[in-house]
Amino acid sequence: MTEKIYIFDTTLRDGEQSPGATMNLEEKVQIAEILEEMNVDIIEAGFPIASNGDFEAVLEISKNINNSTIAGLARAKLADIDRAWEAVKNAKSSRIHTFIATSPVHMKYKLKKNKTEVLEAIQQTVSYARNLCSDVEWSCEDAGRSDIDFLYKCIELAIRCGATTINIPDTVGYTLPNEFGSIFKSVRNNVPNIHKAILSAHTHNDLGLAVANSLAAVQEGARQVECTINGLGERAGNSALEEIVMAIKVKKDLIPFHTEIKTEFITKASRLVSSITGFSVQPNKAIVGTNAFAHEAGIHQDGMLKHTGTYEIMTPDSVGLTKSSLVLGKHSGKHAFNEKLKELGYDFGDNALMELFGRFKDLADKKKEVFDEDLIALAGDRTISYNEHIKFVSLLVNAGSIEKHEATVSLEIDGEKKSTTSFGNGPVDGTFNAIKSLTKTHFKLKLYQVHAITAGTDAQGEVTVRLEDRGLTSQAKGSDPDIIVASAKAYINSLNKLIFKKSKSMSNEISEIEIGEA
Fold it and tell me: Is the whole-model pTM more than 0.90?
């Protein structure tokens, strides 16, 4: 039996720090449930002191998850640790994850502490956390740029004070794989009590090396890897869970370890996170991109027809990507529709299913063929569970090269139907102007992105919209065979999310917190 690599998922904490990726409590619980279904060992559910919303989400996840360890993040401050413990103490298995920066640049400019003060903080906070919880993880933020001898002292002290997991992060995605691996090798050889703790790797993708760095760390002694679904995360993102897990599974000859992840749930988890956050997965993304198992070149197709092993190093079904002979159209019934959704990784209650089935029938009336991608878009829209203060009702546009671009939009705002007509530099601009007029909002449009879900002139369009107001951002998607309608839906979804985020920010306002990333 090979050694186990523990999978620590931080989609709900580090992943949520991506601009526009804020999730509400219900959505966080949804993601936690699929992570548990996948057999993720540790779920970092949030940063409890950051806001009341974060605290409540970690608390709720702790109550609902039975098989995964639930971790809460805390800075090297007693108040942070108390808040984290309060949030996770009801979990079947709890962990406090505390951190402090150890690099010269972070200590000087961010912490304004010298080495002695950092060591004192480690001793105080790790000991305090261990008195509350038997499972304590300690992280040396910006380890990739830290003095290695000082790192030894910090790690030895953290273990002596009760840390059971030592996480070494490449916080700014700065190191190369051989550099990062050598840090782990040096720590194992120079920290006398290192055998008393599990070594963990947390990497960022600023140079596109997050997964490579994590695997290098595993080869040099790391037995826990911190990652996110789809590589979601601040700046360029984190190490992608699906890539880490499948690399270990495929390359057993060079990486002789195993995880306990149920890989057949990978696609389902990827789609759920994408739907909730509004962050589309790029088509050529490894493992979960729409092109990951597509073969267009003639020589590749010829090889695949002769033997799939010629061009596929893993099978689509090993990551939960299945192809079905079940074809849906306007005459399909609810049972067949439900079975198809389950094949695609979605399971809805009766009310949600009936709503989706009605939308499917509307779509089937407009399209000859309804593809898997169409159903994924429908189901993805349904996973957006923010309070819909604003609902789309109807849209009429006047466009072309001669007449003025005019849009008449009808919305339901807090139960009251309202309509208006606006002009713009094109039908989308006119539509957005009308929505802004009706909702009395003037948020900045930071991203407008369109792509066709399937081929053909009757294809659904999927639109992604990101809005910003005073440093807060939200991102959401909308889909429809009419691209202007899809644009309106995406704008409204993003608007609802930003309104939620603004209200959460106002109601949970506490002292200014600089959210560091471990």
Answer: no
